[in-house]
Amino acid sequence: MARPRAKGLPVLYGLVAGALVVACALCILFVDKPVAEFWHQHQALRPLFQAAAAPSLLALPASALILLLALVHRLRNRPAPDRFWLTIALATLAATAAKDELKWVFGRAWPGSWLKYGIYGFHPFVESILYGAFPSGHTSYSAAPLGVIWALRPRWRPIVAALLLLVMAGLVCADYHFVSDVLGGLLTGGFCAWAAVQLMAPRHG
């Protein structure tokens, strides 16, 4: 598995990350509340949106399976799975751990917390089921493996983009998350994907 060769990629990734941070801030200020309220008033399609977000649940067990297969191969003195798959597993597990800690650090209220109790904004380090929306965990551990595929299998990028948009739209339209939450999850998972690709790339020379 070769390291991405384009010299401008780190700069591009930095610009995209910066744009996502700005977009998160703007959504928190101007977009999150009206979008959540709109979809709260249009519940008829909620089962469809829940189904759209469901594929995100496959990422973590798939990563565990990859690592289990790698262990079995090692114990049998057989070649390990392709580095590409190990990179996907590493990125997914890192994103899962990162999102759990970030949720506690930010203490962001859920859409349901705002719609039912009027609680909005961020309440860092609060231990309560009313908080924990930011960043979106489902988006984080979807964006991580898909981000690896985006970086290392460019021909699959249209499918990667479609899957990510499907999951993110499902989470927002089902009122599981604010728009800024899924953007934060995209940033979290994307960073873990980038880091995993850099760490797992073979060294030359």
Percent in helix: 55-70%
Write down how many β-strands occur, each being a DSSP E stretch of 2 or more residues: 0
Any guess at the CATH architecture? Answer: Up-down Bundle
| Main sheet record | none
Number of helices: 8
What would you say this structure looks like, in words?
With 205 residues, the protein is an all-alpha fold. The protein has one domain: Vanadium-containing Chloroperoxidase, domain 1, CATH 1.20.144. Helix content is 70%, strand content 0%. It contains eight helices and no strands. Helix 1 (9-40) packs antiparallel against helix 8 and helix 4 (83-106) packs antiparallel against helix 6 (137-152). The radius of gyration is 18 Å and the shape is elongated. Mean pLDDT is 91; it is low at 1-7.
Task: Offer a concise description of the structure.
This protein is mainly α and 205 residues long. It has helices at residues 9-40, 46-53, 59-75, 83-106, 111-117, 137-152, 157-173, 179-200. The two termini are 15 Å apart.
